[in-house]
Amino acid sequence: MDKMTVRMPVAIKAKVTETLKTKIIGDLQKRIQQISLELEQFEFTAKRAIVEQENQDDSLIPALQQQIEVERSKRVAAKQEAEAKLKRAEKLEYGAEIGHGQLERTVELEIGTDLDKIMGAEIVTEDGRIVAFRA
Q1: Dist CA 112 CA 4 (whole Å)
Q2: Is there a single domain that holds both residue 83 and residue 127?
Q3: Domain count, the chain
Q4: Percent of the chain whose predicted confidence (pLDDT) is above 90
Q5: Residue 22 sits in the same domain as residue 51
Q6: Are residues 99 and 69 in the same domain?
Q7: Residues 79 and 29 reside in one and the same domain
Q8: Residue 64 pLDDT grade (very low, low, confident, very high; cuts 50, 70, 90)
Q9: For 81-97, how does the pLDDT look when each residue is reduced to its tens digit (9 = 90+)?
Q10: Residue partners of 99: CB distance under 8 A and separation at least 6
Q11: Which neighbouring-strand residues pair with 3?
Q12: Alpha-carbon Rg of the chain, whole angstroms?
């Protein structure tokens, strides 16, 4: 066999423009707001569950509180991660390139093909339009 056809990843990079930066920041702000609302709703539901459990069986309250704390921690961590991403997004410089996803392509390989060069393939976009291919 002298040839082989394979699927290979292609990195998508986006040039930071005012439009892209505004979109990223807006999306993250919406996500933080959504997580905050979910956290408030969770807190309300958790308090209600504890009150209901107090009326039924006090012995199960410590286990319920532990479950609530685990879930609260997950939600708080998600919010902190989104806030950290927002801070990084606010510091993005116009013209910089950021990872924006990945696609696959089909490539025919032959004996002697420079695999490192093919593996580094990138598509560069600016405001959703392709502006460059890099191999």
Answers
A1: 12
A2: no
A3: 2
A4: 72
A5: yes
A6: no
A7: yes
A8: confident
A9: 999 999 999 999 999 99
A10: 11, 12, 13
A11: 110
A12: 24
Strand order from edge to edge, sheet including 122-126: 97-110, 3-15, 122-126, 129-134
Categorize the per-residue pLDDT at 51 as very low, low, confident or very high, splitting at 50, 70 and 90: confident
Distance, CA of 63 to CA of 60 (rounded, Å) = 6
* 52 and 69 housed in the same domain: yes
Tokens 């986006």, residue located: 14
Q: Which domain holds residue 43?
A: 18-92
Q: Report the distance separating Cα 114 and Cα 112, nearest Å.
A: 6
* The two three-digit tokens of residue 47, written as one number: 């308090």
- pTM metric for this prediction: 0.76
